[in-house]
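Comment thread on ticket #2218

A.B. wrote:
> Attaching the input chain for the structure job we discussed in standup.
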Amino acid sequence: MINQTDLIKKFSEIDDSGFPDFYSYKRPLEGGLWILWVAKEELGIKRLTAEQIASIIRDVKEVSVHAKSINNAFARAKGKIHIYHENGEVYFEIMEAGKKHLISQAKEGSIEVFYFEPGKRYTSKRFLSKNILDNLMGELKIVDPYCSERTLDILNGIENKTVKFLTRVENLRQRERNRFLRALQDFKSENSNIEFRNYSHTDIHDRYIISSKLLVILGHSIKDLGGKESFAIVLNRGTSKNIFEVLIENFNRRWKQSNII
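C.D. wrote:
> Ran it. Output below, let me know if you need it in another format.
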C-alpha cells in the first residue's frame, strides 16, 4: 500500500479537469467519493481508508474534514461504495452508483452545456446515452417532433425508467414515416417502459427532455445529433422552476390530446 506522503504528492500532481469540480460538493459523502473516484481512475488505487481520504482533502484540497466524518457519511452510502476489512483496517472503493451520484450532484444548482461535433453521429449517440440519459432520474418526458429508426436505437438502452415520448409523425416524409412506424412496432415489443404518442397539431417545435430534477434542451432532434453542430443544455429544476412548470404543464396537456402510436 502506498504511504501517505507519496499519496499526497501523487494527488497534488493529478490533472483532475476531466472530473466534476471538487468544490461544487459541500458534504463529506461527495468529497470522499470524489477522492475515491480520482484515485481509482487516475492513480489505479482502488481502495483507501477514511484517514487517507480525509488527509488528501485537507492537504491537497485545503478543506477541513475529519476521518470520522468520512466514516459516518460512508455508513449511509449503501451501494455507492464497497467496504473491505484487511489487517485491522477498513478500506473503501467507489462503485458505479457512486460515480453516477457525483455526476448528478454536480449538475444541481448549475447550467451545463454539451457540444456535439458535426460528423460524429456514433460518438454523439453514445454520449447522449451514457452521459446524459443514463444520469436522468425518475420518469422521462421527451418532446421531439421528428423521429426515425435512429431515435429508437438511442432510446433502446434506457432501462428501469418510464418514458413518455411525444412526437409528430406528420413531420416525416411518407417513406421515412412508414419505416419509423414499422420499426416502432418491433421496438415496443422489447421496450414496454417506453410509450410513444403522436401529437397531430403543429404547435410543437422544440426538443427537450424533462426528468425529476433536470431539464435537457436539445438543439436538434435526437436522430440528427452528430450530423450537424449542436448543443444540449442541462438545467436544474431548483434553479429553473418556472421553466419546468410551464413545460410540464404543456407536455401533460399535449399528452392528453395525443394518440398512442
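A.B. wrote:
> Thanks. Noting for the ticket: The chain is about 40% helix and 20% strand.
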